[in-house]
Amino acid sequence: MMKFPNLAAFFCLAALFSLSNSTLAQGVRFEHGMSWPQILAKAKAEHKCIFIDCYATWCGPCKTMDAEVYPLKPVGDAYNKNFISVRMQMDQTATDSDDIKMQYGPADLLERSYYVNAYPTFLFFDPNGNPIHKVTGRLSPKDFIQLAADASNPGKQYYSILKNFQPGKLDTAEEKGLARSFIGSDKELAGKIAADYLGRIPISALDNEDNGKLMVQLQSSSKVVEIASNYIAHLNASEFGKKNNLAFIAALGKQPKVRELALNYITHLRIDEFAEENNLAFIARFNKEPEIKKLAKDYISGLSENQLLTKSVIQFVYAFIQVPADKGFSLFYSYSTKIDSVMANKDYAQGTIELIVNKTEFSPLLAVAKEKTEEPDWTTIFAEISKKYDPSLAERIITDGKVDWYSYLVKTKKEDKYWPELIDSKIQQVEHVWDFKRDAFYVNNIAWLYIFLHSTDPKQLDTAIRWLKVIVEEDPGNGDNLDTYACLLYKAGNHRKALDMEQKALTLFIVAKNKSNVENAKKTIAKMKNKEDFWLEKEYLNP
Question: What is the number of other CB atoms lying within 10 angstroms of the CB of residue 270?
């Protein structure tokens, strides 16, 4: 565990470390074309440790590190001075170069030897190749610079602490930060350190909000949960009911002992205490417990209109709506407009009603239709829901249901002939259900993934162009929206305006220093100028 098993043999095979841009102008300098023995020799000669960035091609946080952290000069100054930096691709793709393919064996060994199972993972080694530190997850530039300092500090190095940890030996002033630093790489060790810290500080200090957060973060540790449970058990009713304690206890509510204490508190509340805002939010967190459901049902049944129409009560009622027979459902149905006004969300009540009706009335029918591969009887379903509720709700259910059905045919059954119907159903959904300002990101995705890539219908294209025109006018500084708008215009035959919009998108991407989008926009402009039907290219057809 503490050394690469036979790692040198793997790395002697070829120059294995690579990066498309091996030297970032002012940021971290990643070595390129060097074997492991060569890296060790360089590290020893320059009296530096070794930093390995373990990444995956599909990893979004890894790409963020590439774009927003590694290129920065302060980051480069911190790493280039003290480390030989290299990269290791941990996944395998069909487009991997021969150099990357030579990494497969070492990548597998890294994964098995150092439990690299999340990306990015940062590994650090001394000049002799012995592991000294490990951290997982995307970091801000500030935190990544701090990581370089931690990796050089024996008191904070993961493998040193892992090897030498003994309860009661570390300074409690350091333990909380150390515990958090290992959450991503070794939760078991993090839990041991946290339990040692929490067990040594005064019990009164457990009331500190940050200490509470630590216990929540590391509730996978039985010792941490034991400390938390003992603290909660010694709270009197007044202390238990404090807002910060209720939030802390609710976050630990899946732990049996804590849940038992929480239920005991709730079942002993007076009715006037039950209705207090903090208690309502707390009780709602236990909405699956039978005794709490009964208490909630009794409370909700006694609500007047005035009592209902407050934010905290509405949120409480929402937590206990499961089926149309629930009292909360009838309240949401009867007072939907007023509830939406209180919540400042025009779909709060209506969306809840639709969700419950869809789950109970439509989803079972859709499941049968999928099993038999027979299209649902939309007319009958519409009539039945309209009779029980109202035509407007039935229309929304049918609209969403058609999206589900045609998505199933196209994406699961791979029946491409249903693309027109799927696109029509998506258009109906956007036109009648969604809010352009609030849902601009999703509308943009529908316009690109469905209509641009898979429609040749002029009417459908014109509809998407109308959407994007509104969205672009609303947010002219969004390059992604401009890019989609340009591509739709191009496919509809308006080449001149399309080029103009794509050039504006390119300018925005350049200003934002988004290298990948800049390159893509340049390629799109070239394809437009060459009059290419680029939506037919394989790289685009991935909805």
Answer: 8
Q: Residue 23 — pLDDT band, cuts 50, 70, 90?
A: very low
- pLDDT interval class at 164 (50, 70, 90): confident
Token code pair at residue 179: 């515990």
Kindly state the average pLDDT of the residues 78-97.
91
50 phi and psi, to 5 degrees?
Answer: -120, 135
Q: Which runs of consecutive H residues, i.e. helices, occur in 53-208?
A: 60-68, 73-82, 98-101, 104-114, 141-151, 158-164, 172-181, 187-200
Residue 12 DSSP code = T
Q: What is the DSSP letter of 535?
A: G
Nearest to 244 by CA among 210, 221, 200, 268: 210
- What are the tens digits of pLDDT across the range 251-292? 999 999 999 999 999 999 998 899 899 999 999 999 999 999
3-state SS assignment for residue 131: strand
- Provide the residue count of the chain: 543
Question: Which residue matches tokens 């407009």?
Answer: 337
The two three-digit tokens of residue 337, written as one number: 């407009």
Average pLDDT in the 494-508 region? 96
Q: Which residues contact 410 (CB under 8 A, 6 or more apart)?
A: 416, 418, 419, 422
**393-415 pLDDT, tens digit each:** 999 999 999 999 999 999 999 99
Q: Is the pLDDT of residue 157 over 60?
A: yes
Strand-pairing partners, residue 134, are: 123
Which residues neighbour 217 within 8 Å (Cβ) at sequence distance 6 or greater?
180, 183
Mean pLDDT of the chain: 89
Please return the burial class of 257, using the count of CB atoms within 10 Å of its CB with bins 0-12, 13-18 and 19+. middle
C-beta separation of 369 from 405 below 8 A: yes
Is 23 strand, coil or helix? Answer: strand
The answer to whether the CB of 232 falls within 8 A of the CB of 204 is no
User: Is the separation of the CB atoms in 270 and 299 below 8 Å?
Assistant: no
Starting at the earlier edge strand, list the strands of the sheet with 49-55. 83-89, 49-55, 121-125, 131-136
pTM of the model: 0.64
Q: Reduced to 3 states, what is the DSSP secondary structure of residue 289?
A: coil
Query: 505-520 burial, b if ≥16 CB within 10 A, otherwise e?
Result: bbebbeeeebeebbee
Distance CA 118, CA 185 (A): 9
Residue 505, CA atoms < 13 Å, CB-side half-sphere:
26
Q: Which two tokens stand for residue 480?
A: 């992604």
Tell me the two tokens of residue 309. Answer: 């129409």
